[in-house]
Each structure stands twice: as structure tokens, then as C-alpha cells.
Amino acid sequence: MPFFAPVFQPLHAHSVCVFYPGSTESAGNGARDTRYIMADKREIILSGIRPTGRLHYGNYFGAIKNFVDLQSQDNTCYYFIADYHALTTITEREDFYQQTIEMLRTYVACGLDPVRSVIYRQSDLPCTAELTLLLGMITNIGFLARGTTYKDKMGKLEEAPGGVEGNPLSYGLLGYPVLMAADILIVRANKVPVGDDQRQHLEMAIDIAQRFNSRFGETLTVPEGIARNALRLPGLDGAAKMGKSEHNTLDLLDDAATVLKKIKSVPTTTDPEPLGTDSNHPDDVIARMPNSVGALYRLLNLLAPEDVYLDFVGKYRRGEKFYGTLKTTLAEYVSAFNAPIIEKYHAPGNSRETVEEFLRENARKVTPVALDTVEAVRAAMGIGHSLYRA
Ligand code: TRP
Description:
Layout: H1 4-7, E1 16-19, E2 36-39, E3 44-49, H2 57-71, E4 76-81, H3 83-86, H4 96-109, E5 117-121, H5 127-136, H6 141-145, H7 148-159, H8 171-174, H9 176-186, E6 191-194, H10 199-216, E7 224-227, H11 256-264, H12 282-287, H13 291-303, H14 306-318, H15 323-346, H16 352-381
Parallel strand pairs: 3-4, 4-5, 6-7
Antiparallel strand pairs: 1-2
């Protein structure tokens, strides 16, 4: 087994170990592998996604699209499925693993590229758990207990004991932000795209990194957030948010018949009221419509050519009878958007086995980078490099 101390070279803050592009050979013990090189990519980007089963339009326009755009630039992108984090809330264990794989197949079908981006499962990088433990030594309980997500959960628990999923009193839930900090710091990410709901968690990670560096010397790369160029899509029922637990989603794998059925059932009973604005910008227009109608216009604006969208805004202004055609037109654009995703999802090159294989391969790629950080942290904290690693 390797003795790690001598083979780990400190990494330049903005460089990262990557394998030669296109190399499909496994690194095995990446630490000794000479096939990976120091590459100066512009940014090291990392983001995690909780496994949630089927992906919907809210996920796509809120996150996936952004991830796909970022990978097309000259960045090193790490995207992982946060299955350790999911353990704080997971209730259905039976098909959880299966769902994670299905979700990855959908990501690939949407254009996340497992060659250009390093896509892995969090639990396939178990040294993240080691870093979590180490960072836990410098993280105060009060700091964690003051986090808004945590406080919200505790508030809900008081209101309705038993109404909070998972085990809200666990050490794991309190430590959620420490695990998230470990995810980010372990690959020395400098840019982290997060939505509003995760901004505070990212700030906590920044705080933990700074605290570590000031206490033990410059060891960790302090990350920055980047605004996710994201849209919060309303649900098909007009609720503010499209969400799986709200049962109001349009899914990326819905076939044409399902799409039509879902869109037809969007409530559009009220007659159009005057919009009270000359602007045709979706943000102005949609805000003045009943919520569920606004949801249809938002989707039309995202998927159809500008003139189709403007034509329907005109119909709305004139108060014509048009909801039927709006719905069938929109359903066609949605189905046309879904069709290539569905096809790619079922492609032989995107089978369960293939996905498992690239997860394995990508976990191998990220492991040497991650171990390098863990070893540096161990050394900085005084326990020294590991003498043995399974
Ligand atoms: N907590 C994030 C969420 O619920 C997922 C996540 C885990 C994450 N680790 C991360 C996001 C690291 C960004 C960076 O959405």
C-alpha cells in the first residue's frame, strides 16, 4: 500500500490535477499515477445536487442548464450527487440507489457530459467524510445551530413533532453545512454556483475555510459563490415553485400525451384582465397574470420563438378566446424539447451500466485531488499524513 506523504505535491491554488482528456484508463491509485497533469484551467467549479428522482423543468432551468453552460467554457467542473446529504431526509430506501442512477441518466441526456465534467457520487469519495470530521474540530455548535435552514427545521419540529422528514435531531443534520464545506474545499473549488436557498451554507463554508487558514496556516482555497443564472419556475398549478413534493411539475421525460394532459389541466378559468403595462417582457407580463396562466407564458417564453410568445401576449391583451390554442401550442414546444432528452435517456450509451462505469471512472479522477487536500489538512492540524489508506 502506498505511503502517501512523499508522493503528494502541494497544488497550486488555481490548478488542479486532471487526467489527459479522453484518457479512459483508470488511475488506480491516482496518487502514484503520472498520467495526470497540472492544468491551468480558468476556474474550478463545483456544485452538488441532492438526488430527487425524476427531474422537472424547475430543476432544468434552475440548475442543470447553468451546469451545462459552465462546462462548455474552459473550466474544470465537478458536479456530484449529494447522497450523503440525502441521508438527512431520505425516507424511501428501497429505490434510492436506483433513483440516483436514473437521475444521472437524465442529467447526461440533458447535456451534462461525464468526459468534460467530473460527475461523481459524493459517497464514492469517502475521504469527504474524513474532511468533514477534521473540519468539525474547528466548527462551533452555536455557529451551526444559527443557520437558517437548521433553525427553520427546528421551528417546524416545534410546531409539528413528527412533521419533519428524516431525523431532525441528528448530529448529521446539524453538521450538514460542515459536510457541504468539505465537498467544496476538498477539490479546492474557487467558484460555487448556488441558488438562493444554499447561499448561507456556502457562506458557512467560506467561514470555515477562513477560520482553518487563520488557525493552521494557508491550506484551503477559500471559495466564492457565483450566482446561478437561474429561474424559479412556477408550478403548473400556479404555486410559486415547481417542486416534486408539490406534485405540480412538468418533467423532462414526460411523453407527448402526458405533456398535453398536464398542460390542459392547468387552470385558466379567469378571463384576461388588462395587463396595465406596455412592456412585453415576461417578468412584467407574467407578474400581472393569474399565477397558473403566468406559468404557461413563462414556459412559452422559454421554449417558443419570440414571435410566438409575443403573438400570445397580444391575444391576451385583446382578450381573445385563445387558451385552447395556447395550451396545444405550448404542449408541442414542450414535447419537442423533451423528445431529444427522452431519446438520449434511452440511448444504449446511457444505460445503467454505462452510468455506473463513468461514476466509477470519475470517482477515480477526483480521488487524488481530494486526498491531496485531506493530507494537507491532516498535516496542518498536526496529526501528520496517513500511514495507510484502504
Ligand atoms: N446542499 C445542496 C442542496 O441542497 C447540495 C450540496 C451539497 C451542494 N454539497 C454541496 C451544493 C456543495 C453546492 C456545493 O442543494
